[in-house]
Amino acid sequence: MEILWLSEDDVRSVLTMEDAIPAVESAFAEHGLGNVQMPPKSYLYYEHGDLRTMPAYIKKLEATGVKIVNSHPGNPEIGLPSVMAVVILNSVETGAPLALMGGTYLTAMRTGAAGGIAAKHLARRDSSAVGIIGAGAQARTQIMALAKLFDLEAVRVMDRRKERARAFVSDVSGFLECECVPVSDARDACDCDILVTATPSRAPVVLSEWVRDGTHINAIGADAPGKQELDPRLLRRAKVVVDDLSQAVHSGEVNVPISRGEYRSDEIHAQLGEIVAGKIPGRENDMEITIFDSTGLAIQDIAVASLVYRRARELSIGTLLEFM
Would residue 67 show up in a list of annotated catalytic residues for this protein? Predict the structure, then answer.
């Protein structure tokens, strides 16, 4: 028995945003229809970060497996990514491992795709200006996805490390066909149609009064208990959509306001999959503020990993390793 090893470079060679978006959107729809198995993430906590395991089964794809991923915000200071991951795909019929692949780039791409899908269903269709707070690796794939789905005219990016914001502008100039400029204040980034927050913050970086009616927000950074990027008053002004209710209440943007009695779980409008599947409406008028609370779902990883595995087999990419 052999197992296919796909390095990060192998994954990059076969995974595009054009492929990731429909794969992730289909996974959300299956989630909304109740056709997946996905236990909540499990966490191990350390002094400098955490480690998570994320299993899932998508019946429609006959795809199953688990992702193991860390979050160590201080890693860039020692030359490592904040997030690193591996994904194991297994046979549904026998349970045998089929592939082991680098999951760091995959994680960034599937999260970017999820943000694009959320904006597709929740942002105004004429949205053309994007604000970004937090110019790390995730910001890049968020704007990659949004650029595929919207006719963007301006991007404003803010990061507490100004050199990282400038580096982001230089990086995205290779594929972004619109003006992209760094700004020094988070309030300036909020002057937009679609706002992306992608920070490891444990206190609000966006105040309610900075956000105008009609804005859509992809709140990406809060993915563990205690993390928070948005003013709780903003949640009360908005239609809040989560990726998964149990995960969001435990570790999403809503987790801190709920724990403090500043917001209630029954105020959440829907899970994104329910909107994608057509069970619940998304945006209903141009004045609504909409928020997508993204915690990251294992079904996203397995859907994209399954796509990568099939493509790699077709192209004879990767290394077969003896397993048993």
Answer: yes
